[in-house]
Amino acid sequence: MVTTEERKPMGVRLANLDGAAQLITDPGRIDIAKRSSGSLPGDPMELLGRMDELSDWASSIDLADVDGPIVTGSLGPPVPRPSKTFGVGLNYRAHAAEADMAAPSVPLIFTKFPSSLTGPESDVVLPSHFTDWEVELVVVIGRRGRYIDADSALDHVAGFTIGQDISERRVQMATKPPQFSMGKSFDTFAPIGPAVVTLDLLEHPEDLAIGCEVAGETMQAARTADLVFDVPTLIAYLSTICTLEVGDLIFSGTPEGVGAARKPPRFLADGEVLTSTIEGLGSMSNRCVNSPHFDAGSVR
User: Fold this and answer.
1) Residue-averaged pLDDT of the chain
2) d(C-alpha 217, C-alpha 273), whole Å
């Protein structure tokens, strides 16, 4: 037990292990409900609005005394049941350029259905040969709010995590204008994780290296400082439209290097591993598998 004199405010990494909230430390994992004797909940969703309390509790325990290792394949999405999941299109200038489109003058918002969420090590199920990757910084809301000022927006953030805005391009581009939400909301099309990381663990949370690899080949490599609309601006804008609830997710946009913009286009294939990394947040590794209903033809 850490004494009161030794306590210092500290950041935390909150993960979901088989549905149970876990504190992630260098040696392994700590079962939060078990170790706190029930004073803190075991449901990750319930903890997102209590991150300050979780941080204070974490500073009172021996973080080297873990309950076990992180078991490969057992991590679920650290935010399992968000009420809303937002996406932001063309939010890196270089990505807008590779898409041959102008950067938007206001945030280009779409939604990903929460049913598309999956874990940081779960399989991504491919419905066709035209499924693309988009690594993204994901913002997790930790305090409810409406009409939030950009200057105080980060006070409403529980933490950041890594996300992939997987996109089936034929469905997305089947009509004009495109059907962003439909093409990006297939089951398993929103892997997130491995943990929600509080911002005080990040030296420069506004400028993080971000990238992804497919089958070991680097496809995207950039920095979040290149966002057209930064995180406070996105929170402030969205909160003028609707109340942001605890656990809401904002996929903040992807940098250049997506498969559809390559010449020739390059998409995800059965058996390939998609690895997504953001500085300070860790990495995800998702295997791609063809759906039993895999469609190699055109949209009907």
Assistant:
1) 94
2) 10
